Amino acid sequence: MCTETQALRKRSQTGSAPELSAKEIKSLQPYAKSPVGLFTAKTTSPKIILQKHDKTDARKYLVAQAGLENFIRSIVAALELKLPNTVRFNMNGQGVMQTWEDVYMAERVYTQCLGISKRIYQTHAYTHEPERKLAYFILEEHNERSSWILPGFDFYVLVFCYYNDNKEVTAVDVQYDQMSFFLHCMGLAQAHAWFVEHVITRIAITWAKAFHMTGLVNPFTFMLQLILFPALLMYCWGVMSTTA
Fold first, then answer.
1. Nearest 5 degrees, angle CA 44-CA 47-CA 117?
2. Residue 130 CB: number of other CB atoms within 10 A?
3. What is the rounded radius of gyration, in angstroms, for the C-alpha atoms of the chain?
4. Does residue 43 surpass a pLDDT of 60?
5. For the whole model, what pTM was predicted?
6. Cβ atoms of 83 and 163 closer than 8 Å
7. pLDDT tens, residue by residue, 44-55
8. How many CB atoms lie within 10 A of CB 68?
9. 3-state DSSP helix/strand/coil percent for the chain, to nearest 5?
């Protein structure tokens, strides 16, 4: 795991964001046209990330750190929270770990398995609700790969951090689009996004319009279609196989 110097900074919220030119305003998009992640072939570091945010109206707390353990210690330090040995770490509902040692070990193993040689974490929209004893933020992962065949990519995760009256972190809930993450790992995210937009979505819209015109839209008829359509496809496949 990387041991780069902790990069934690408190920024003043006075002053306004820089004015944009007409050309820059025209280039802004109302939504992201790429999947949840973003492919990138560039390298970066916590120092570069902090310098980049000098040009934006970032929130009060900005954490950029290489390695999961360093990052977690940085984000809890921002609120003066403590890290006991035990924690309920819910990994997107796919696994729940009970100690920080297990969390750090799991991160080291699966990043190596996925060919991730370097991972830098940074926060966006760090929000603290003291009355709920809750802090949450958008986590951006910058992933560089161990092989030139594998594309590097940035990925975004939603993180909820709960603590008790003693300001000890008791639970962490991590939520993200798991399929999108693995598609990025395999370099297939953009192809999948194109297929969904130009093929799957058009088929779904055509089906929805036809279904709506029947006037029989309800849970029963919907579930009936889910049963009948696969059965019909299997029957047609069997007929074609026997006649071939």
1. 35
2. 9
3. 23
4. yes
5. 0.64
6. no
7. 666 666 665 554
8. 20
9. 40, 30, 30
